[in-house]
TrEMBL record, chains A, B:
It holds the Pfam family Voltage_CLC. It comes from Patella caerulea. The chain crosses the membrane at residues 77-97, 125-149, 179-196, 240-263, 275-294, 331-352, 372-396, 455-477, 483-502, 514-540. Keywords: CBS domain, Membrane, Repeat, Transmembrane, Transmembrane helix. Its main location: membrane. It comes from the Eukaryota. InterPro entries: CBS_dom_sf, Cl-channel/antiporter, Cl-channel_core, Cl_channel-6, ClC. It is a multi-pass membrane protein. The keyword Transcription regulation does not apply. It is found in: Membrane. This is Chloride channel protein. The keyword Repeat applies. One of its GO terms (cellular component) is lysosomal membrane. GO terms for molecular function: voltage-gated chloride channel activity.
Amino acid sequence: MATDSIRKCWRRLFSCLSFNRNSNETVPLLRSSQHGGHNVVSNKDYESLDYDRCWNKPYLDYRERYEKQHSDRKLEILQWIMTFAIGFLTGMVALYIDLIVKLLSDWKFGTVDKSILQCSKDGCLVISLLYLLLFNVAFVIVAACLTIYEPVAGGSGIPEIKCYLNGIKIPRIARLQTLVAKSVGVLFSVAGGLFVGKEGPMIHSGAIIGSGLPQLQSITLKKINSKYSYFRTDRDKRDFVSGGAAAGVAAAFGAPIGGVLFSLEEGSSFWNQKLTWRTFFCSMAATFSLNFFLSGIDSNSWGYFYLPGLIDFGTFECQSEKTTGCHLWSAVDLFIFVIMGFIGGCLGAIFNTLNKSLSLHRMINVNPKHKIFRLLEAILVAMVTTTIAFVSAMTLGQCRKIPLKPSIINSTRSSVELTVRDYFCEDGYYNDMATLFFNPQEIAIKQLFHQAGTFSMPSLAIFFILFFFLACWTYGVSVPSGLFVPSLLCGAAYGRFVALFLEQVFGYKTVYSGTYALVGAAAFLGGVVRMTISLTVILIESTNEISYGLPIMLVLMVAKWSGDLFNEGLYDIHINLKSVPLLEWDPPTEAARMKAKAIMDSRLKVVFPQTRVASLIRLLKTTAHNVFPVVTAARDDCSAVTLVGPSQEADLQEQDDVECFVNQNNSNQDGDGNPIELLQRNLPMKFEGMILRSQLVTLLKNHAWYKENVEVCSISIRPFLKL
Amino acid sequence: MATDSIRKCWRRLFSCLSFNRNSNETVPLLRSSQHGGHNVVSNKDYESLDYDRCWNKPYLDYRERYEKQHSDRKLEILQWIMTFAIGFLTGMVALYIDLIVKLLSDWKFGTVDKSILQCSKDGCLVISLLYLLLFNVAFVIVAACLTIYEPVAGGSGIPEIKCYLNGIKIPRIARLQTLVAKSVGVLFSVAGGLFVGKEGPMIHSGAIIGSGLPQLQSITLKKINSKYSYFRTDRDKRDFVSGGAAAGVAAAFGAPIGGVLFSLEEGSSFWNQKLTWRTFFCSMAATFSLNFFLSGIDSNSWGYFYLPGLIDFGTFECQSEKTTGCHLWSAVDLFIFVIMGFIGGCLGAIFNTLNKSLSLHRMINVNPKHKIFRLLEAILVAMVTTTIAFVSAMTLGQCRKIPLKPSIINSTRSSVELTVRDYFCEDGYYNDMATLFFNPQEIAIKQLFHQAGTFSMPSLAIFFILFFFLACWTYGVSVPSGLFVPSLLCGAAYGRFVALFLEQVFGYKTVYSGTYALVGAAAFLGGVVRMTISLTVILIESTNEISYGLPIMLVLMVAKWSGDLFNEGLYDIHINLKSVPLLEWDPPTEAARMKAKAIMDSRLKVVFPQTRVASLIRLLKTTAHNVFPVVTAARDDCSAVTLVGPSQEADLQEQDDVECFVNQNNSNQDGDGNPIELLQRNLPMKFEGMILRSQLVTLLKNHAWYKENVEVCSISIRPFLKL
């Protein structure tokens, strides 16, 4: 079983290198232009990014010339400036998203609020619902249209970034166009009342900025194309993308350290001290440029930095009357947290399983059809979500007393008290369900974390169940949609429910319900995404409370373990659904005894150090691979090709080099005989190195060939192989 | 120039692999027993740890058998249990160090305090000084004796851990004996009034626990030697040492995330997601087990966790009368911080240069002499330090008013007010110099961070200068001595001085002096150790104030840059002084065009796949290398050895394989002819793999040879090469 799954995964990977017998269609020389259409990309289309430095003679010569003109110092300074610019711009994009979402939400809730207050007297609530539906559907249509125009802008973007940093080129993932579609689309999907977050899209935006900005050119807008040509290798881009993604996390959660760890945990299959430091700088730049503007806009006194990030979970403070008896958590709570973590992991696994089935269904039944169906699905989700939220808030909510007057207590709490919704309740009372449904999600989370007044157990349970299924349905609809904040909100309701349960059923009185809400949020989010160290740090930084480290970590660990019993994290599920050949950190233990030939299922296309131009062009046109192994043939019938040069090749004539190799190879193809074996040391074929498609194309474009005789031209590849 | 330094560094490294012509002395088969003596180790004695997994046939067979008995799951659970145990024990060691140091300090200061209060009336201050001297010298003698008994227990231990994690085996670094010497010695060096910290030794202790505990055996105490034999490879040890070191940082500073990043930044040349998570778990275990006991002992109500770590910088809170005008820092301050960072870097560079000269002097003039001189130096340092501190506190301190009554204000500040020293001052006044000198360093730091009453500028300047030079002299004396807290204290005085300067000279009134003290501390510590991301995180975690992230990072970055203009970080300086061949993250750019032969200065000793026992034993006895390349000779005169097996070797007779290779090679040794070239593909010698000394010894011990003829036995190495 396990070997099968490795075989499946590795085969997918190796298929990048191996020759696909059935594909005889002609492909363009440089393949990137192939992905112009909006089809669902099949796994054959994934190629790897060139993260390896190719040290060959021409490159070293180039470097030597280059270094004379540009000192390393200058390049380093440029790198740092670019890093700052990426952080700054990511912060600004996050700021813009946050502000516009707030504006749109305020507009929407303001209008609807007025209507509800009026209608609760007049009994015209259906009109309020229609208002709300109108807003939400209109917003969602904008978001869905943008996503249908640019499909990779859908979803959270985190799986895609994970793949990119893993070294897999996913088409159009880092285009300016995607950035626009994503950062505008997310405004409307969040403001449209869908149960989605804006954090994932912010992270994706940061990654796109990281990838695009240092190049000062754009494929989308061809006019942006400067002469400035630093940082255009995949390797440089990757480093900047790490920084940009980290900056996105940092801006979204006010968590610069968490951002760095996110980049490392989710993405980087590499680790480098300098890169980490630069990534950290980028995160910090994003956090503090955002903080600067946010604080300035908020208080109109510029130059101070007191609003740490877009998500601020507020200060957790115990305010019991008995001054000593109140603690945020104690050793006894830890045991309960472990159980909560276990349940959270299971809930997350259920969420993932449901979402996986839904996504599969979507891939098979919705996506292949006309685009209009995707739009219709988004509208349907918006309508159902809105109606359910409205109806349940109006009919199922309970009126609870607001416990303290806002003026007496500290600022965090008073701001919490100000956001309660008092629909259909007397003065001094609030509707608990409406408070959760009729607020932006961040505010609802704060309510669950800090609202001293209780929510009723039935309200919490109903809210959790409704939110759980609706969020599960929403993730994957073609709108930009983050996963973090909805999961946190869902989990916070679960945690708060547990606290109430313990208090009311078991009479466990020293519960600080805010801590339970936080732990529940961590447990559920951990169960869904299965991130570990970075999520812990993000949550610690968002709460700005180091003493929550142990409970959060414990809960995330347990949630990951219990969730892993059932399935993978949601991001990995979506990566698998897209058939991306992601390479995990560790190969499966079974792989230790396996050899490459066990998973190779088709033959390699190879080139020889001296290859004829005609055959090279034919090779490039008939295969889709981005890299070719270069071999020399030591056997007599082919040796002329490699050992003695073109003048003695007369006997080969029309039969070109590659075919020579393939034909010769066919003779001993009995059953599982495999050409890769020929490349091994003790057989006539010798592996000399690799050459990229792009390098071959460059050679061809520059006419870097020589005349073999009147009709035949050849290219000498050897100098371009790795040293 | 640069090439020279690479050459020097790499040559040192390659000397591990290469043959030293001049060394003809006989060495024991397994070299670890050689390091029994206490000599200063020369660079020839450093060997690398075996972090590479050696996948060969016998190992895979062994694994297969092993996996049938022990499931991976069981091993993983064991790993996690061990990780927790390491964290817990490290936390306990830190707790014990902290408590005993407090006890000893209280005893000392209690006695001396009483004497001073009495003597300031009676005029017998010399007697107080004698009391203090007696205490300090006695304590320092204990510390110095322990260090002289076990020299690697001296210093902070961080350079040694850095080397260990880099893959270099430094003798005796991870022994139980070292742990005892270090953890007992540090009590007395800190309590003895030396300007040293206990954090470095805590980190070293954690690393030793990490290395030793999972093996459940000890070289020091031979009786501890269980049958249990997991986790004994260098690779496993390394992973646990990472965890232990991180746990040490976590316990010392209450900074679990900082601990993980410390392990990564300072140590690990590898990065692995799982390992990071385990390291984080270890840190958390240390932080919270320490926290649990500390909180329990402090308040006698067990089960709560409110004392975050041993070092707690207290809460930074602005308590100005004008409620809005007070901020911890503003954008304007940032510019000043950059300048402070620059100066801090320069000060750090001066500190490092002075300490380097001193250490060199010590290595040449003190260490080779009798041990008594090292003891005498320690006593001298203790006496000078004590006398200077005493005299300057008594004569140069100024009486300042205590600004607020302790009862009114919050707990952090009130505890700060309680630790002022009022020697020779009226009621309500305190002696500022005595407050800095006659308190444990952590409390002095808190004074500088939070004391609302001012320190006078002359007092701060004098304190800084005295402390700077004394701390510089002390680091390297043979006592266990950390560097973090002294540097922080020194830097805090510098920062506080700058704040006062800005306030009094430039009339810059919105300065919050605590922030300046913190920034100064970061600048100076950063200038000395040149750590970046981990130090930022450690300081953020210690202050529990995320909003200090930007200033701290900025200052550390500038300090590192300005310091790097002059010299390396202090840890690196000490590593270089010990001639440890540490491999940096990035090779120098000049190395890109270099080939190995440019830095090889002597010939390799090689073995053949079939080697005779006699020649193998001779090889092991005459060389000190821990690893040998295995080659096959393809040339006619030697080919018999490798290609056709022993029976056809008759013509070689007495001349053994290795010599055959060497002789044959001598013929084309003209000038720079180099045998490494022979190992290249296109020359007659072919590189087959590597084999470790330990593997060869195991083969020999197990008589794994076959009879070639009546007299000659051979060993077949091939199955043990890497697959």
